[in-house]
Amino acid sequence: MRRRVRSLRTALNTALAWAVGALFAFPLVWTFFTALKPGDEVFGSKIQFIGSKVLWSNFAEAWTAINFGRLLMNSLAIATISTTLTLVVCTLTAFAFSRMRFKGRDAVFILFVLTLTLPSEIAIIPLYLGFDTFRLTDTWVALIVPGLFGAFGTFLLRQFMLQIPIEFEEAARIDGASTFRILWSIIVPLVRPALSVLAFFSFLASWNSFLWPLIILNTASRWTIPLGLAGFSTMTGTRWELLMAGCILTIIPTIIVVALAQKQLVKAIGAGAFGGR
Amino acid sequence: MITPKPKVYGRTDRASRQHRISRRVRAVVAATLSVGLAAAALAGCAGGASSGTSGGASSGTSGMNGKTVKMFTWVGNPDEEAQWTAYIDGGKLEDPALSVEFSGPAIGSYYTKLPTQLKGSDAPCIITLQNGQLEPYASALEPLDSYMTKAGIKASDYDPSMITQLSNGGKVYALPYDAEPMVLFYNKSMFAAAGVPAPTVHWTTNDFVTAAKKTTKGNVYGFALGQGIGPVGNFLAANDEEYVSKDGKADLTSPALQKRLQWFINLATVEKVSRPLEASGGQFPDIDQFSNSQAAMLINGTWDMAHEAKAIGANNLGVAVIPSDNGTPHGSIAGTGFAMTKSCGDKAAAFNAISAMTSAKSQQAVAKSRSQVPARADSLDAWKSSTGAEPAAVVKILTENGRVGVSATNGDKINTLFTQYEVNGFSGKSTAAQILQDVRNGVGQ
Amino acid sequence: MTSVTLPPSAAPGLQGPQKKRTKTAITARSWQGWLFVAPGLLGLVLFIIVPLVGSLALGFFKYSLLGGGQFTGFDNFIHLVHDPLFINSVVVTTIFVVAYTPLNIMLSLAMALWLNTRLVGKTWLRVIFLIPALSPMVANAAVFRLLLQKDGAMNGALAGIGIGPIPWLSNGSWALGAIILVSLWQSFGYNMIVLGAGLDSVNPDLLAAARIDGAGAFRRFRSVTLPLLSPALFFTSVLTVIGAWQVFIQAYIITGGGPGQSTTTIMMYLYQSGFTYDQLGYASAMAAILFIIIAITTLIQVWGQKKWVFYD
To answer: Could you confirm whether domain C75-308 is CATH 1.10.3720.10?
Structure first.
């Protein structure tokens, strides 16, 4: 009897939760269906999910209209490079803060912490002018490099590294390992969850970033996906059905990755986000 | 408690931990990484190569790519690309050796990025400027008068209002490639279905409101309202009224402006022939409505004609003058020109490109293929032949009674604030007077 | 998830300099430390600190992208304090922060708790809630831009349950509400995951012990779960507040700052001043003030953590 009550409660609970989920997903579902409508049926008060025609061709048209293939390659490449370099820089720096003693270490660390609270958008103008002085505007170098040095990654990794018992490294020292060897062979494997969290968020930040790419990139062939989405609004109006199709195309890769890596991600975020547990 | 000391390096230890991480995740990550790195390699080569060519201009002439002239303009999508290609191809009819390349952001960010482009080390040789946008950038541009004289090109070859709008301090800074009057587009089948006769070139504001009322049914409105102060300005211009003085000072207390603004708002709230405007992030709701057949009439420049013809059907697209109170139409001309930057390293080549793209041969070719009203009087016939009698008559009378629209010096701020505050008029919160007062407060007048 | 057993003396949490029990006995030579920290530090200085200082310095100038700059001292700041548009933007942003942050945290916590109960398909539900957080804000804003029209799908859906058409984009208060709504929709998924992970790590034995002692569900939550969750709550609330002060894209794409000035946030006005009106010095002065505001609220939260955040 108790088991039946229990499964009834579970069923109700599930149904209710999924109802909330459906409500939450309504804008996304609606976006998907709008992407399939003919252009002149996008506006209208009746919620019609299916229009008079189902135009799967809108996806193809959106793809070519903004050269989505190119944008996808660009975004993917930029995000991957960004993530890899961020991991390298943050690992080195976090290792120094957590495991090394050097004069002024604490002062420099406080500097890092302070920058955590700063809004990055306000630095855009001097950053642009700086890159312009070196003739590096409209390049991927200018796009990627400023994003590599946010203090968040260093902070996160340091948290994790601090949790590693000193005994491991002492043993390695006794065995004669160099500092770099210690980092590479001991520390890095042990902070893998943090690295994957950092990788995930770096990738995401790069994938979604809009303002800096908007300012630094001119040539359409170098654009990232968010910039391309803006290309649907022109002087001759906006093709909303294509814009919606473009949004769906943008979301799909992230859905796939998250769906596959979700459990590990959740565990890893929890372990790193607030430290100590 | 003694923590056992694991073997700290060597593959065995790592291997024993790896099984904990799901193989699936590793596969996904590996796949993403390899695709990403491959893409990086490919795109990096392409990106590196192209940044090489543009960055490499540092060793060549500023604004030039070898013998090719570089142009900065708005390129948001293939349609805009096609437009510039058409002008370059047209220029080649005049000068077969012409070589121009173009790049740039979507129109929405063009003017935002223009100043940094002009100041930048790799400034282009040619930029495009719409009418009334010249003044802030004139200091970075090279006056064209001496080049024109040398080449035997007369300003009078071009539409006078456009030349005036592309001049500053008596000097010409850009040569226009189009001179498009603001016109009223209407949906012929909607008019026919409502029993509304086609507008004549002398139709009045009353005729217009009547037509709008008859064509408003269900979800479809008679007239599509545009955002910002421009659309209201169109009605002022049609009645030969002005709220900006010749030296660029906007008079926001102008009774004419207030009257037209209230009338504009009433179209939605009282006459109910238009969809009320809501807060919006700078799109063009009026163009969207008309091209999606949700409105019977739209006011826009003739540059939009090709797009609207494609959207609602070339046979369905009607062109009329903007209605005036007394039936005497006045046109307000808008267009774009090519300007040359002061920093251009090869000004002769740049001017050659500009004059080629705005030459008679080029204008005629583009007029035929893209139905944009050319800026040269000698090319108007080519345009007329491709678009038909009704638009031709409209354009003729509007161009004859055309006027220069002067842009206010702080026009951007006025327009932004106006766009934000006019929504209150449609929701009934503010009258036209209050809206203008709010704008004045925001601008600090 | 790692095979490392943690000695009880291990790591402090996210707190500041107060508990320095780090054991760093490794490297004796100072130069090695500097070597490792060099790339990160150099990058931080070059690409974050210098531009920020530059940006703050620009606040003392009148600077136009076309016309260069001239030193104006405190003029920009004085003007800002008297500028009704700026004061309004501060009010608007404050309202946003004060309304959005607690709503965000409560929603995330509620959903995290709910997803911790017996449910089928938790994984997929989590994915659904995460999707908006993972897509570019530009895309989300464009979607809501369409949805929130007076005759759009949102009002259409509401009409289905008998609620009259809401003037999302034509009434100032509703417009700000719309911005809050979109922001919540976009970002509560991430906080939900963080809090969910925090919940996962609450030792079930403690809860079981409390239940044996007779504590009801609510009492268990208040006295066991909540304190153990407080580091996670602290983390999410600090980040949420910082992000909330910088709200921009939603206003930029959905409402353009209108109706009137009801959704012109500080960053929106900053962007307009800097990039539309070409008053970069003025915009930089705004940036300086925004920075101070954010720093103050963050400091308040960090000091406050002593009172309510529980680290064991």
So the answer is: yes
Q: What is the pTM of this model?
A: 0.81
Q: Does C253 touch chain B (CB under 8 A)?
A: yes
Cα gap A30→B115, rounded to integer Å: 40
Q: What is the 3-state secondary structure (H, E, C) of B321-367?
A: CCCECCCCCCEEEECEEEEEECCCCCHHHHHHHHHHHCCHHHHHHHH
Nearest residue of A to residue C124, measured between CA atoms: A259
Domain of residue B145: give its range: 64-179+335-375
Task: Please list the residues that pair with A6 across neighbouring strands.
Answer: none
Give tens-digit pLDDT for C40-83: 888 888 888 888 888 888 889 888 776 678 888 899 999 999 99
The answer, for B106 touching chain C at a CB cutoff of 8 Å, is no
**Overall number of domains in chain B:** 2
The answer to whether B115 and C61 are in contact (CB under 8 A) is no
Chain A segment 88-127 residues within 8 A of B by beta carbon are: none
Do A135 and B219 make contact, defined as CB atoms within 8 angstroms?
no
- Asked if the model's pLDDT at residue B434 lies above 80, the reply is yes
Cβ of A18 and C125 within 8 Å?
A: yes
Q: Name which of A77, A141, A219 is nearest B39 (Cβ-Cβ).
A: A77
B189 and B328 in one domain?
yes
C213–chain A nearest CA distance, Å:
22
Average pLDDT, chain B: 82
The answer to the question of residue B238 being in a domain is yes
**pLDDT for the residue numbered B132:** 75
The closest alpha carbon to B245, from B400, B134, B409, belongs to: B409
| Residue of C138, C185, C233, C297 to mutate when probing chain A, most A C-beta within 10 A | C138
